[in-house]
Amino acid sequence: DLYRKVFVFRKDPSDAYVVLRARLEQPLHNFTVCLRSYTDLSRPHSLFSYATKAQDNEILLFKPKPEEYRFYVGGKFVTFRVPEGRRDWEHVCASWESATGIAEFWLNGKPWPRKGLQRGYTVGATAAILLGQEQDSFGGGFDLYNSFSGELTDVYLWDTGLSPDKMRAAFLSLRLPPALLAWNSLSYEVKGDVVVKTRLRE
């Protein structure tokens, strides 16, 4: 149980990452991914990378610069421009719905204007899911200068689009519906220089 714990990615740049194991029985037509990050990086870095053998950026949360997030589904992306962080924890949730192609992005419990992305697409189920690196091939192909350095916590993946109330609950660390990946019952494997530590502050 990683309650009140964080992954500390100690080096910059880094070849370290964390492999997450999810029980995916079938392809995804809807999903929500949420996580909390704390970093002083100004270069591009990957937060959450979900690759299939057919598509290395099947789901990707990527931060090319401090005032921008990119959300990929099936290799295509939309950009969400954000205020440059005050060097504090940032909580992001991104959700996607195949039927409408609507991509939602929430930062620190607030929604950004919705965008259109990959309507009718299906996200493959046989996936390599990594924190801290961006995959250019299934489970590998890393560029060290896209690596994450800093602290990550509260990582979740659901096979549904969360309601606004649940998006806010995720930000506030309240009770959440059962997830494919849940921070409090995470199945993971650390590869390289990543340390699990207690969170310094709430």
State the total count of DSSP E strands.
Answer: 15
Number of separate structural domains: 1
Q: How far apart are the first and last residues' alpha carbons, in Å?
A: 17 Å
On the 0 to 100 scale, the average pLDDT is 96
> Helix amount, in percent?
under 10%
What Rg do the Cα atoms give?
15 Å
Keywords: Acute phase, Calcium, Disulfide bond, Metal-binding, Secreted, Signal
GO biological process, one term: innate immune response
Disulfide bonds: 34-93
Main location: secreted
Please outline the helices and strands.
Elements: E1 5-9, E2 17-20, E3 30-38, E4 45-52, E5 59-65, E6 68-73, E7 76-81, E8 90-97, E9 102-107, E10 110-111, E11 115-116, E12 127-131, E13 150-158, H1 164-171, E14 188-191, E15 194-198
Antiparallel strand pairs: 1-13, 1-15, 2-12, 2-14, 3-8, 3-13, 4-5, 4-12, 5-6, 6-7, 8-9, 9-10, 9-11
Pfam families: Pentaxin
Protein name: Pentraxin family member
Subcellular location: Secreted
Can you describe this structure?
This protein is mainly beta and 202 residues long. The protein has a single domain, classed as Jelly Rolls, CATH 2.60.120.200. It contains 1 helix and 15 strands. The longest helix has 8 residues, at 164-171. The model has no long low-confidence stretch (mean pLDDT 96).
